[in-house]
């Protein structure tokens, strides 16, 4: 069974969103599934420059050129996402938006958007990959605190043949210790339920 992918999108190691992902992972593993973590802060990749090279077939990103002196690992991350049966993106909210590193990775998905019509023909009839997100904010108020991030994720995932299937939105959380036992238990249970779905799917496969 392939690993579920948990993407840590915070620039800070061990922060609230990392802790949230940890509780989710505990549940997935308890259900008998396996998890791979990928922290964006540990990967080297450049931001999209808007060069438009990917607009035309074969929709190749100029930044992925292997001849460059500086390695670019965006394709490695997209490959991890492609082979995972389930993905969770855990991220903090900064100024009502996703953090810069995460947004830079999202922008690198432009080549998939450019090729979306071709991909729809390739994956016709297949259900979209389920994707989850856990978004955390120190701010307690704001009716649309998470709305912009969710909209960004929705359209990032669409050309990747993936769909947002669940979310946890946590407000007023500045430090990991601010997570209540009830919230931690809910995150673990959330992971367990999705882990059970994964294990049952692969056990039922011929």
Outline the structure in words.
With 206 residues, the protein is an alpha/beta fold. It has a single domain (4-204), classed as Rossmann fold. 39% of the residues lie in helices and 16% in strands. Helix 1 (16-30) packs across helix 7 (181-204). The model has no long low-confidence stretch (mean pLDDT 93). Residues 5-141 form the NADPH-dependent FMN reductase-like domain.
In short:
The protein has 206 residues and is an alpha/beta fold. It is built from seven helices and five strands; from the N terminus they run E-H-E-H-E-H-H-H-E-H-E-H. A five-stranded parallel β-sheet has the order 2-1-3-4-5, with helices on both faces.
Question: In terms of topology, how is this protein built?
Answer:
Layout: E1 4-8, H1 16-30, E2 35-39, H2 74-83, E3 87-92, H3 100-107, H4 110-114, H5 116-122, E4 129-136, H6 147-157, E5 162-170, H7 181-204
Parallel strand pairs: 1-2, 1-3, 3-4, 4-5
Helix pairs in contact: 1-7
Keywords: Flavoprotein, FMN, Membrane, Transmembrane, Transmembrane helix
GO molecular function, one term: oxidoreductase activity
InterPro entries: Flavoprotein-like_sf (IPR029039), FMN_Rdtase-like_dom (IPR005025), ISF_SsuE-like (IPR051796)
How much of the polypeptide forms β-strand, as a percent range? 15-25%
Q: What is the top-level CATH class?
A: Alpha Beta
Biggest beta sheet summary? 5 strands, parallel
H/E element order: EHEHEHHHEHEH
Mean pLDDT: 93
**What is the number of E strands?**
5
What name does the CATH topology carry? Rossmann fold
CATH architecture: 3-Layer(aba) Sandwich
Q: List the strand order in the largest sheet.
A: 2-1-3-4-5
Shape: globular
Overall tally of structural domains: 1
Unreliable segments of 5+ consecutive residues:
none
The percentage helix is 25-40%
């Amino acid at each position: 069974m392939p690993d579920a992918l948990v993407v840590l999108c915070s620039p800070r190691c061990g922060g609230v969103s990392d802790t949230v992902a940890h509780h989710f992972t505990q549940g997935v593993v308890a259900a008998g599934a396996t998890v791979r973590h990928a922290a964006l802060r540990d990967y080297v990749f450049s931001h999209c420059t808007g060069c438009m090279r990917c607009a035309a077939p074969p929709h190749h990103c100029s930044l992925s050129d292997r001849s460059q002196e500086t390695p670019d690992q965006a394709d490695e991350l997209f490959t991890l996402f492609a082979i995972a049966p389930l993905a969770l993106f855990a991220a903090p909210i900064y100024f009502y938006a996703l953090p810069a590193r995460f947004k830079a990775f999202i922008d690198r998905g432009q080549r998939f958007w450019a090729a979306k019509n071709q991909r729809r023909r390739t994956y016709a009839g297949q259900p979209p990959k389920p994707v989850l997100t856990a978004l955390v904010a120190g701010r307690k108020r704001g009716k649309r605190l998470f709305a912009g991030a969710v909209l960004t994720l929705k359209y990032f995932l669409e050309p990747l043949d993936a769909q947002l299937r669940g979310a946890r939105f946590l407000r007023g959380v500045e430090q990991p210790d601010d997570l209540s036992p009830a919230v931690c238990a809910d995150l673990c249970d959330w992971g367990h339920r999705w882990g059970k779905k994964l294990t049952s799917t692969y056990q039922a496969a011929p």
